[in-house]
Structures are given as C-alpha cells and as structure tokens.
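Journal club prep — side note

Before the paper discussion, L.F. wants everyone to see what a predicted structure for a comparable chain looks like in token form. Sequence:
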Amino acid sequence: ISGSSKKHSKYVFAHSDYLKCSNPLAGFSSKEEAAAAYKKFDKVICVSKKAKESFDTLFDTSNTTVAYNIYDIERIRELSKHTPFDKKKFTVCAVGRLCEAKNYSLLLDVCRELNDRGLDFECYIVGKGEDLEMMLKKKTELKLDNVILVGATPNPYSYMAQSDIYVSTSIYEGLSTTTIEALILNKPCVVTNCTGMEEILCDGERTYGMIVPIDKTAVADAIESLYKDPKKLEEMKSLAAIRAGNFETEKLYERIMSVIK
C-alpha cells in the first residue's frame, strides 16, 4: 500500500510497543526499508502514546499521531448478558491470545500462589494461541483444577460479565483492548504495568484500576486485596464505570475522523 502510486490519502495503524514486540520488522528486509515505507503514509495512527513513542524511536518518523480504537459499547453490553457458566465462586477472568506477550504463564503462577494462600476462586482464561500446550502442561503440573481454559469464543464479554475481577499479566501491549472492554462492563481491573495501561487507568489525578509490577507476588496481592475486601471491590466497580466514559464510541470516532480528514 505504501508503494501505491494512486493519489489517495494513505493511513496505517500501529498496534504494539515496537521496542518490545518480538518482530517489529515483520514483512520487511531491514529497518531502513520499513521506515521508508511508513514515511510514505499520510499518517501512522498509533493506538496509544507509548506505542507512538516506541514507533518514533525505532523508525525515526515524524508522521505519527495517536487515536484510540473504537469500541461498540452497545454490542459489548448486549453480548455480556449471556450466561456461559454457573458462577459459584469468586471469579477472575483474562481474555486474549495465548502467546508470549500476554504472559499467561505468570497468571498460572499467580493462581497457584492464591491457592496456596487459601483463596476459594476460579479463573477463566479465554482465547487460543501457540502457548496452549505449554499452559495445559503447566496447569496440570501446578494442579490448577480451578483454572478453566475456555479456548476461542465469539463472545468473551459474557465471561467478563460473570467475573468479579478482570486480570491482565501482559509483558507489552499497544493499548489493551480487553482492559478497556472490561471497564465498559464495570469490572475492577488488575493489570501489569506495560504499554498503555496508565493511559487506560490513570488521568493524572486518580487511578481507576490496580496497576502492579510484572511479578507473581504483586499480582496475587492485588487480587487477594479485592477478594478479602468487598467494599473495595465495589469501589473499584464504580471507578471502572466512571473511566469507561473516556472510551465512548462517538468520542473515539470523532478523534479518528479528525485525523483522517
């Protein structure tokens, strides 16, 4: 597309932390070739400020800007009304591709730690990917009968809605779509401090979720604090509902249109 000679505006979306992702040059023979291609676009639209910083650093570009993805809030809330499982316990949910970036190996370690602390809970992990075999093996080794690997589903929102907490243990993101979707469903979020999480959950004055280091004990402590404190859990739900207003469909649509106009 960058090589097209047609006299149309050209845009490309950058969805990752390009200094941390495993293959930022996929499809190119060199960084120079990639940079030359990206510079032919009218705009490189990055999905977070941190994604823009990493992109600019790697490719030395000046045609980047930031615009968040658009979320179909009505559809998300409608789909969330379905009941995919019989909720009997405190429930933790994670959604995303089973891959290195999402760091689900850490989440399994966290679940083992919480079991050892005596918490009575279930964890639903929704998604498919190349780490499935590793996770199945580790789940067995750690005796995690309370961890359910759901696999792929067209409706992850129903699992989010049934859960008490949404958890992300990612090493890097562009801007975590699933964390924003969890906010839309008013779910307390416990997330590791990777690309974009502060943009999602902080406004400079208040934090609307729990951002912790990429560390087993830190994640386990955060989950346990909400498990043991129903009042705090309810407060986090209210904060999530407030923060969800930042991602209203019309507001994000207007930002995208202002960029491409």
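L.F.'s comment for the group: The beta strands are 11-14, 43-46, 64-66, 90-95, 121-126, 147-151, 165-168, 189-192, 210-212. Keep this in mind when we get to the figures.
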